[in-house]
């Protein structure tokens, strides 16, 4: 164990099963459930975000007397470890996590609801929707990730195209060797990256209800889905050729970085690669291909409270009072620069035009579904798109996929 500050301990992932031993108690035994002082909380975090959480934890301890023990975990281990350890009493009171953990957390009964109160108004709606399941909010969201249109300003300037067709016309007028490239993961398909164009035809993968929660109703069928499939075929290898199964992630980025392609769709994680050869870029929302707003998937990071914690009120107070501040959110951003869901911080960091462009795209977006049914969709969905891009009959291929998805989810 390594002492970070008075009463705040970071525990290596290899000793996580002893999380409660530092203070002589497990999360279910320590503290008091009425929110009084003198309790303790165990918080799981990855190494990147630990210093930022530590600062808020120190303030919480100083002001309330509640000790917070930080347990550093490999992020990829958190979902399974939380599901396995919470029922045994060995899990934390709070864990950091991605919103797409939510479906499995709710199914396993290991996560509790949270009331953000007026702090909800400080958070982008798409982030709150992402942590909402069956109309209930299950976490404190703080950061976003999404994809957007990235354009070579040396070829096509900074102005955002008004539509997909306008984008292609602008690139052709500029003499670009390739107007547009998009990753299809080669022969595997990449429905995630293509989703903004699909939603612009009014064909969501699943239907959302009034609360923002996803239902199990498949939304890809009908006229909207068929129109998207027809468009995809028209721009595929048997059509105009802008979309090709020869373009995997690396090839996509190399063609753009070489100045060969005028436009691509990518995430902030790829900007350094896209600009490695000196290409100047502007980031804009994805243009509509089908007439409706192009709504890409948005991933959200946040914090969950264990359903087995006896300190739920303390945990909620820490999240909604000590992490839900401008200073704490800025510290999280500086420690691990993800697009902020906290509105005042988002406005602040939007002085960077690249960040501003991705935030504008996220504002158009929708949460990637966290419902368990989503696990039955990806392989069928990706395969259908590849078949259509390669020249298969768009409508019949798409409708077969929709039928197969409906059967797979029961």
Written overview of the protein:
The chain is built from 16 helices and 18 strands. The strands form four sheets. Strands 1, 2, 3, 4, 5, 6, 9, 16, 17 and 18 form a ten-stranded mixed β-sheet that branches. A four-stranded mixed β-sheet has the order 11-14-10-15, sandwiched between helices. Strands 7-8 form a two-stranded antiparallel sheet. It has 410 residues and is an alpha/beta fold. Helix 15 (378-389) runs antiparallel to helix 16.
Shape category: globular
Largest sheet: 10 strands, mixed
Number of separate helices: 16
Please indicate the percent range of residues in DSSP E strands (runs of 2 or more): 15-25%
**Residues in helix, %:** 25-40%
Determine the N-to-C terminus distance.
48 Å
**C-alpha-based Rg, rounded:** 23 Å
The residue-averaged pLDDT reads: 90
Structural class per helix/strand content? alpha/beta
**Unreliable runs, pLDDT <50, ≥5 residues?**
1-37
Extended strand count:
18
Please specify the SSE layout and strand pairing.
Blueprint: E1 2-5, E2 8-11, E3 40-45, H1 50-64, E4 67-72, H2 75-85, E5 94-98, H3 102-108, E6 111-112, H4 125-130, E7 132-133, E8 136-137, E9 140-146, E10 148-152, H5 153-156, H6 164-173, E11 178-181, H7 191-199, E12 206-208, E13 214-218, H8 222-234, H9 249-257, E14 261-266, H10 271-274, E15 281-284, E16 297-306, H11 312-323, H12 326-335, E17 339-340, H13 343-349, H14 353-364, E18 366-367, H15 378-389, H16 394-409
Helix pairs in contact: 1-12, 8-16, 15-16
């Amino acid at each position: 164990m390594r002492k970070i500050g008075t009463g705040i301990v970071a525990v290596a992932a290899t000793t996580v099963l002893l999380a409660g031993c530092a203070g002589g108690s497990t999360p279910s035994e320590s503290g008091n459930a009425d929110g009084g002082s003198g309790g303790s909380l165990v918080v799981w975090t990855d190494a990147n975000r630990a210093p930022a959480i530590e600062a808020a934890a120190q303030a919480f301890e100083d002001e309330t007397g509640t000790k917070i023990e930080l347990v550093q975990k490999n992020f990829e281990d958190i979902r399974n470890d939380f599901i396995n350890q919470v029922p045994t009493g060995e899990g934390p009171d709070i864990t950091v996590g991605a919103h797409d953990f939510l479906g499995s957390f709710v199914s396993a009964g290991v996560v509790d609801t949270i009331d953000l109160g007026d702090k909800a108004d400080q958070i982008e709606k798409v982030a709150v929707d992402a942590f909402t399941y069956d109309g209930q909010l299950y976490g404190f969201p703080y950061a976003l990730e999404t994809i957007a249109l990235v354009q070579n300003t040396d070829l096509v300037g900074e102005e955002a195209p008004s539509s997909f067709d306008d984008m292609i016309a602008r690139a052709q007028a500029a003499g670009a060797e390739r107007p547009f490239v998009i990753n299809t993961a080669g022969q595997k398909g990449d429905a995630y990256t293509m989703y903004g164009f699909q939603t612009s035809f009014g064909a969501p993968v699943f239907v959302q209800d009034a609360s923002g929660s996803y239902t199990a109703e498949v939304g890809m069928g009908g006229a909207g889905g068929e129109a998207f499939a027809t468009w995809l075929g028209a721009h595929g290898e048997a059509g105009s050729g802008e979309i090709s199964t020869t373009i995997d992630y690396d090839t996509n980025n190399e063609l753009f970085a070489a100045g060969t392609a005028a436009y691509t769709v990518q995430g902030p994680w790829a900007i350094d690669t896209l600009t490695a050869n000196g290409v100047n870029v502007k980031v804009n929302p994805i243009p509509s291909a089908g007439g409706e707003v192009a709504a890409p998937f948005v991933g959200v990071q946040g914090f969950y409270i264990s359903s087995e914690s006896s300190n739920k009120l303390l945990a909620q107070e820490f999240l909604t009072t000590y992490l839900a501040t401008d200073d704490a959110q800025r510290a999280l951003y500086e420690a691990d620069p993800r697009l902020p869901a906290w509105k005042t911080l988002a406005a602040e960091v939007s002085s960077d035009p690249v960040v501003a462009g991705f935030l504008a795209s996220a504002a158009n977006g929708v949460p990637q579904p966290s419902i368990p049914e989503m696990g039955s969709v990806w392989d069928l969905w990706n395969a259908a798109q590849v078949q259509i891009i390669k020249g298969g009959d768009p409508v019949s291929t798409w409708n077969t996929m929709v039928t197969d998805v409906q059967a797979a989810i029961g």
